[in-house]
Amino acid sequence: MTASLTGKRVAFLAADGVEEIEYTEPRKAVEAAGGTAELVSLDTGEIQALNHLDKAGTYQVDKTVRTAKATEYDALVLPGGVANPDFLRADADAVRFVRDFVAAGKPVAAICHAPWTLVEAGVLDGRTVTSWPSLRTDLANAGATWVDEEVFVDDHLITSRKPDDLPAFCKALLEQLA
Questions:
Q1: SS3 47
Q2: 50 in Cβ contact with 86 (< 8 Å)
Q3: Interatomic CA distance for residues 123 and 99, integer angstroms
Q4: How far separated are the first and last CA of the chain, in Å rounded?
Q5: 3 located within any domain
Q6: In a domain, 76, yes or no
Q7: Which CATH number covers residue 124?
Q8: Rounded CA gap, 58 and 48, in Å?
Q9: How far is CA 43 from CA 26, 51, 67, 148, in A?
Q10: Is residue 159 scored above 90 in pLDDT?
Q11: Does the first or last residue of the chain, that is N or C, have fewer Cβ atoms within 10 Å of its Cβ?
Q12: Strands of the chain, DSSP E
């Protein structure tokens, strides 16, 4: 039985191109444990999720990253997808939002290609992380040590490689929040 997350708020920062399962599965885990999940994005309206490179569902944005503050949440989830983190890392408000969570010592969970946003936020120097293998050099250039594990927890930073790692990723996220 998972500890209750009643009263906990979790921001899911995502944009068009988010890998659908990397958004929906952690969100379901948070909500099933009694937490509140909010989709934070670059603009109002909906974002277009993908299943690899094919269109998947659309999801209603709860708040824009311009108006969101890390102080309003207990944790941050960064789902992957190739395009999603590329859009996020090019947005100054998104980068600030991520940096604020890390500076506050709040749990930040990033899967697959999502650590690209952590690279841009400049928060990986001296950290150990995992990701989709193609990010290995980018993460090393940002000062991180890359490991090939289904989930790696470095203090409050939780990272995983791919959708197959979602059970371990969600478990680590819930443990950090509980």
A1: strand
A2: no
A3: 7
A4: 12
A5: no
A6: yes
A7: 3.40.50.880
A8: 5
A9: 22, 21, 10, 34
A10: yes
A11: N
A12: 9-13, 18-19, 36-41, 46-51, 54-60, 63-64, 75-78, 108-111, 128-129, 145-146, 151-154, 157-160
Residue 47 in any domain: the answer is yes
List, for residues 50-66, the tens digit of each pLDDT value: 999 999 999 999 999 99
Whether residue 137 has pLDDT greater than 80: yes
CA distances from 94 to 12, 13, 21 (A): 11, 8, 21
Q: Which residues are catalytic?
A: 112-113
As for how many domains the chain has, the answer is 1
Q: Is the pTM of this model over 0.85?
A: yes
Task: Supply 67's token pair.
Answer: 């108006």
**Overall size of the chain counted in residues:** 178
Structural domain for 121, as ranges: 9-177
Residue 1, pLDDT score = 46
Q: Say if CB 17 and CB 84 are below 8 A apart.
A: yes
